Amino acid sequence: MSPAQKDQKNPKFGHLPLSTSGPQETVLTGNALLRTPYFNKGSAFTNEERDTFKLHGLLPSNVQTLDEQVRRAYAQFQSRPDDLAKNTFMTSMKEQNEVLYYRLVMDHMKEMFSIIYTPTEGDAIANYSGLFRKPEGCYLDIEHMDRIEGDVDQFGGKDDVDVIVVSDGEQILGIGDQGVGAILISVAKLVIYTLCAGIHPDRTLPVVLDCGTDNEDLLSDELYLGLRQKRARGDRYDEFVDRFVQACRKRYPKAYIHFEDFGLTNARRILDKYTPKIACFNDDVQGTGAVTLAAIMAAFKEAKIKWADARFVMFGSGTAGTGIADQISDAIAQETGKSKEEASKQIWCVDKPGLLLKSKKDELTPAQIPYAREDGDWDQKDHGDLLSVIKEVKPHILIGTSTKPGAFTKEAVQEMAKHVDRPIIFPLSNPTRLHEAKPQDLYDWTDGKALVATGSPFPPVKHNGREYEISECNNSTTFPGIGLGAVLSRTKLLPPSLIVAAVRALADKAPISNGTGSGLLPDVTDVRDISVQIAKNVIQQAVKEDLAQEKDIPSDDADLEELIREQMWEANYRPLKLVEDDEADAFARGEAGAASHQRTGSVNWTARL
Fold this sequence. Notes:
- The protein is of the alpha/beta class.
- It is 42% helix and 10% strand.
- The chain has a seven-stranded mixed sheet with strand order 9-8-7-10-11-12-15, with helices on both faces.
- α20 links the parallel β11 (424-427) and β12 (451-454).
- It is globular, with a radius of gyration of 25 Å.
């Protein structure tokens, strides 16, 4: 155990249910133990453990360390011919040995992040039915709503699940409707929760809500595994979602629900419906907004812009764009004391038809309506394109979520730079080919004055002999820490104030804020430390608002950080303790979460590690 790990084991908090100190209890022996991913150590079981758990004859004789296993696994990973093959290899490893899987990714985070998550996970989702080898998570379909409660009940007892990620597959990672393949985005998001915030992987539940699909390629694919029918909508769809939510609340009352990749007409509506009732989150609506808001806070500090004066132009007003606008208006309201309605007047939203106007209300989504402008204010002004709006508004901040490559033209950017000293420009559309502008151009067109963050990774740019870091607005620096804070406080709800508290923690870690660089956001490699600070802010705000249901939360900052670290899962092998069945909980019996040995069976399609 490294010194850092020893520091995290605080005797004050070793008694907590999610403590990562001490041995893990299990009733499993022999092959049942080897088939349970959260207990399996493969060749790293010690000789004493092989005696106790009857593993002799089931493993090669040489006992290896986790580091040796990681070296072998990395060599196998590198031998795969392409990114999709590497993704499939990693999926197989995860289903055999969770500790090894997470340790390998943590040791090679920069290289592997794009393999296990976007963009490669998008390819895996698009090919889900063709690549299918075994089920992962909970599959619910709209044709059997009467079974939802029983299906959800299979993954543990009432205290066994902390985070549920659910998708209906309508709008996946920029590749559209993927039907039942959405289970993989739920799985991938939970992997990020574990990697970036130490959410226990055996205490999570990925879910897909199969409502059918409007993807004609899937409907005509004889191998497609989901419902072969058009996507359900309307009251029946709403009943399906509600039955799922109610079943989860009944079976797992402490669980935090994360909605992922729902379609434009449903994402905001569902979030608005359940936010006043349960602790829930939508990364597409809130996560992108939160990380963007953190970058804005850091940029404001550098540019000395006051919240009350700031003018924002949002180019692209779909789920992501309006979600960012919502986060910004929440922050304006909190920082200035303005009403949410007044705060929204500092934001001008532009979409395909141009500036959003109230006269077009029948064509606007519910999320767009609060940002529509009075027609009378624009009767004699051009407003059909971005440049015209920039000329009139003279924004401090320009944000792009349009997926329209090159939309931030030289003329538009230089028009903006005429009116503000430090133009803040965030081309956030991804992947890279869809960016509204290249960071190098933004620095060249503004003579190095721009403050830039992007939606995909870019290398540093150089201008007039100086190098500038390009921060990526990566949601993975934000939503895991928010989830961790929600889990450890058992907050009843997740109102905007808790998210703004999280954003402040992230903004404080920006290199440009603390003099360690020019980036507007911290690097993803520092994400676990960042998650501690985000979780701390979320917990403290939940306590302040009387939303925390967990008892005895320390008020001292240092003690609270130790409480958080003690309960963050680490990719290290812990000792195992054999117990009798009558002493065992679901975890000890190998029945917890989606990785239960009773559901996975033997995995044999890749090399034993």
